[in-house]
Amino acid sequence: MNRNLSSTLLRHLLWLTLAAMPLAGHAIEEPDYQVIRQLDRNVELRQYAPYVVAEVVLNASADTAGNQAFPILAGYIFGKNKGERKFAMTAPVTQSAEPVTMAMTAPVTQAAVPGGMRVQFVLPKGVTLESAPEPLDPRVQLRLVPASRWAAIRYSGTWSQSNDDEHLALLKATLDTAGVATQGGPVLARYNAPYTPWFLRRNEIWLALR
Fold first, then answer.
1. Measuring CA to CA, how many Å separate 110 from each of 100, 113, 117?
2. For 143-158, how does the pLDDT look when each residue is reduced to its tens digit (9 = 90+)?
3. 31-49+147-210 CATH
4. Which of 97, 111, 133, 140 can bridge 81 by disulfide, Cβ–Cβ 3.0-4.6 Å?
5. CATH fold for domain 52-145
6. Distance in angstroms (rounded) separating the CA atoms of residues 123 and 144
7. What is the pTM of this model?
8. Tens of pLDDT along 94-119?
9. Helix %, strand %, coil % for the chain, to 5?
């Protein structure tokens, strides 16, 4: 089978599985967190418990990173690992910009420049770095996300740059008004399959609290 066709079918199968799970009465698992402050109806400050992710960092644009990363990470949770262990799909799938480190000749140092994207699948609760099976694909890395605090805005709508930019600006304005400081770049969090109607989607943007 053509590799591109196989990857497309794998993405469709995984998304169809994810989309069907709520209809079958199974809630999609997500990381544990507590709301430590509600700034308005759609903006929360959250304290997250530690969790483990499978992630891949690609030299790709924000528009293409998800499609490129999906079959790689889906392969891992569908059994492309030592022991062929399979995991249930969780939410969210997150995406954030990752600087690419490049060597500079004068002066001799290294500088980080924009260019990469980090895409993560959250592994189910109870999975640790020690118990998670080793990926067979070297592009897949396992990482413990430590306990952390985030500001999050929740919104619906299409997965478009304009929609994300609009709500990132709203999140920053709300945080500025409340005197809440953040650090680092935004993280996009997607909770639904692409077949979910745009008006029913749960989208979020996270900013790390300082």
1. 10, 10, 19
2. 999 999 999 999 999 9
3. 3.30.200
4. 133
5. Multidrug-efflux Transporter 1 Regulator Bmrr; Chain A (3.20.80)
6. 10
7. 0.81
8. 999 987 543 333 333 333 334 599 99
9. 30, 40, 35
